[in-house]
């Protein structure tokens, strides 16, 4: 909630700032930037016209300076005027109109306070004119980033929800904050009628009312947000599988024992099994230590998740030998 409030505040500030730059302001930004690019950094409208008084120059002084400068830069004075000369003369006329009109006050404000570094999306769009492809890529990246942010927030909220269930069940089952001395399990019921079992080891299990099975509430079983689950990755995969991917057969990886040919000392050739094949015991021979190894010593299998009727995501223990089994009522 706090993050959403910050984003809304930044959006409101951005909207106010962008709305403050109208078309006249953006024209001033554009002419000022072009002027510094051609005439040199730090060149102002006044210095370009040769007005030493700067913003204190009167209307008559601005008009006289413009006429004097226009006689020097007029393309008719040149034998073969270039495009740069034509643009320079056109820029002179725009500058004179700004300084002789109501926009002079805005220009003087920016000249004194400094031109903003961010001049609005409309300004940059008019300057660089991105194509349709560039706009699509930009929107595509923004959408993917927003989708990832949503997935992250959902995962965080789901973890907080499960942690709240676990803490509330423990507090209800263990009023003093400690498990019972006889290490017995406790069962509690929340306000919605769901039943939870709390064991002495601190694990909390939710009871399925239909089957009586118990499912572990494990925060670690809730997956983190991943880029591969966003539209940024899923959309290209969907487009590929819906078009060319349908006609390209998928190759299935096959594990084939590799035979390495080596030359024996007597000059004959013999085959040598790969290292992976040497590590496997023969079918008729038991693996070393297999007879003494108990089923209970088998490695634990990963838990599977299950969504109950109320929408809760719980972990379902595997029924494989050596794994954690589902508890029955």
Notes on the protein architecture:
- The protein is of the alpha+beta class and 329 residues long.
- The chain folds into two domains: 128 residues, Helix Hairpins (Orthogonal Bundle); 147 residues, no CATH class.
- Helices cover 46% and strands 9% of the residues.
- The protein is built from ten helices and eight strands.
- Strands 1-2-3-4 form a four-stranded antiparallel beta sheet, covered by helices on one side.
- Strand 3 and strand 4 form a beta hairpin.
- Helix 4 runs antiparallel to helix 5.
- The longest helix is centred in the middle third of the chain and has 42 residues.
- The radius of gyration is 38 Å and the shape is elongated.
- About 18% of the residues have low confidence.
Derived from helix and strand composition plus strand pairing, the structural class reads alpha+beta
Approximate helicity band: 40-55%
Number of helices: 10
Mean of pLDDT: 75
Main sheet: strands, sense, barrel: 4 strands, antiparallel
In N-to-C order, the SSE pattern is HHHHHHHHEEEEHEEHEE
How many strand segments?
8
């Amino acid at each position: 909630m706090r993050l959403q409030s910050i984003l809304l505040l930044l959006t409101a500030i951005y909207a106010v700032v962008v709305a403050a730059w109208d078309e006249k302001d953006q024209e001033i930004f554009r002419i000022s930037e072009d002027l510094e690019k051609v005439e040199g950094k730090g060149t102002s409208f006044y210095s370009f016209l040769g007005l030493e008084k700067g913003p204190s120059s009167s209307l008559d002084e601005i008009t006289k300076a413009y006429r004097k400068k226009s006689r020097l830069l007029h393309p008719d004075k040149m034998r073969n005027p270039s495009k740069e000369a034509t643009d320079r003369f056109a820029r002179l006329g725009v500058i004179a109109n700004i300084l002789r009109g109501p926009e002079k006050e805005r220009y003087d404000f920016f000249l004194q306070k400094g031109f903003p570094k961010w001049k609005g999306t409309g300004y940059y769009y008019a300057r660089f004119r991105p194509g349709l492809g560039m706009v699509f890529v930009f929107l595509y990246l923004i959408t993917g980033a927003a989708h990832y942010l949503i997935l992250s927030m959902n995962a965080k909220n789901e973890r907080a929800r499960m942690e709240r269930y676990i803490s509330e069940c423990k507090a209800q089952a263990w009023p003093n904050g400690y498990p019972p001395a006889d290490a017995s399990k406790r069962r509690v019921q929340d306000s919605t009628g769901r039943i939870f079992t709390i064991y002495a080891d601190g694990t909390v299990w939710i009871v399925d009312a239909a089957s009586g099975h118990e499912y572990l509430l494990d925060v670690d079983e809730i997956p983190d947000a991943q880029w591969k689950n966003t539209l940024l990755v899923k959309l290209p995969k969907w487009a590929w599988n819906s078009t060319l991917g349908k006609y390209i057969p998928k190759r299935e990886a096959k594990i084939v024992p590799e035979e390495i040919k080596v030359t024996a000392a007597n000059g004959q050739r013999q085959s040598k099994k790969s290292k992976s094949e040497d590590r496997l015991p023969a079918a008729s021979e038991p693996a070393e230590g297999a007879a003494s190894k108990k089923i209970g010593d088998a490695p634990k299998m990963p838990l599977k998740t299950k969504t109950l009727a109320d929408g809760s995501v719980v972990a379902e223990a595997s029924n494989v030998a050596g794994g954690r089994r589902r508890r029955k009522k």
